[in-house]
């Protein structure tokens, strides 16, 4: 690519005023010796000026409002989903912690490892099972209630 061809690729950028200082100087030096590039640059400048004077299309305000409302609804839904997930994960962790914590307690009450051989062991297992089931059911019920309440709140909003 010779100097003239290289400068021609810069002409549109020059018309848009986006040349860096080095390119600007290169262009100016070339224009002093090349009329054809000077004429070409004038044409591009005319076109660029015409484009700048064109009115920028403005979206109608109702379209903007609708888009904004939709974005807000989507954002609210996203937050709700994230919150629901957090609640469910929290309840699962809570239920597991209670389950795991209750096991040593059951062991302690029933007299440790030796208690396994004890007839009371079966009773302890039933208590443990009922307790665990209750915790899990309570957790599940709380999750369902919370999500129902959230949905009701969103419908009212
Ligand atoms: Zn030239």
Task: Note down, in words, how this protein is organized.
- With 157 residues, this protein is mostly helical.
- The protein folds into two domains: 3-53, no CATH class; 62-156, no CATH class.
- 83% of the residues lie in helices and 0% in strands.
- The protein has five helices and no strands.
- The chain has helices spanning 3-15, 21-31, 35-53, 61-110, 120-156.
- Helix 1 (3-15) runs parallel beside helix 3 (35-53).
- The radius of gyration is 37 Å and the shape is elongated.
- The mean pLDDT is 82.
- Bound molecules: zinc ion.
- Zinc ion binds at residues 4, 7, 30, 34, 36-37.
List the helices and strands and how they pair.
Elements: H1 3-15, H2 21-31, H3 35-53, H4 61-110, H5 120-156
Bound molecules: zinc ion.
List keywords for this structure.
single chain, 157 residues, mainly alpha, 5 helices, 83% helix, binds zinc ion
What is the subunit arrangement here?
Answer: single chain
Low-confidence stretches: none
Biggest pleated-sheet summary: none
What is the overall pLDDT average?
Answer: 82
Small molecules held by this entry: zinc ion
Whole-number total of structural domains: 2
Individual helix count: 5
Count of beta strands: 0
**Class by SSE composition:** mainly alpha
The backbone outline, from C-alpha atoms, is: elongated
How much is the radius of gyration in Å?
37 Å
Span between N and C termini? 65 Å
Summarize the structure.
Helices cover 83% and strands 0% of the residues.
């Amino acid at each position: 690519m010779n100097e003239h061809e290289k400068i021609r690729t810069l002409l549109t950028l020059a018309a848009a005023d986006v040349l860096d200082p080095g390119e600007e100087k290169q262009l100016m030096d070339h224009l002093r010796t090349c009329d054809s590039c000077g004429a070409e640059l004038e044409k591009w400048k005319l076109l660029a000026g015409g484009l700048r004077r064109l009115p920028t299309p403005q979206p109608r305000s109702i379209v903007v409002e609708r888009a904004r409302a939709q974005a807000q609804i989507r954002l609210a839904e996203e937050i709700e989903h994230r919150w629901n997930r957090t609640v469910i994960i929290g309840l699962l962790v809570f239920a597991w912690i209670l389950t795991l914590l209750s096991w040593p307690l059951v062991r302690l009450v029933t007299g440790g490892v030796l208690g396994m051989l004890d007839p009371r062991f079966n009773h302890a297992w039933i208590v443990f099972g009922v307790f665990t089931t209750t915790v899990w059911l309570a957790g599940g019920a709380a999750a369902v209630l919370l999500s129902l309440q959230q949905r009701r709140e969103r419908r009212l909003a």
